Amino acid sequence: MRVYVPLTLDSLAEADEAGLVPSDLDRVVADDESEEGEYAALMTAADLSAELLAAAGGGPGRRVVLAADVDDVDGAVPRRAWAALHVDTTAGADPDDDLAWFATQEIPDVLAGR
Hints:
single chain
């Protein structure tokens, strides 16, 4: 099942270092497997990422959503399950903007550009 995990660049760095997303982080699951359902889940996770940024108080940042394919939607998400990364191209992007897509192999490059 595909899950969308709302993150910040800092929590992505932590997950990348640990090699997994801990089970206590939120995740969003699409209502169905349609393209519209998947997109809605992605954008819901993007909204949750924006809330994480606001709660951190660091000002506008870049929304980050990790997409992963898992068997257990409530468990930790190991690196091998990570499917793609979706990130704002600039800090403080319009909340209606789509997120850029990155392959998981590009995570170090995304983090280097923080």
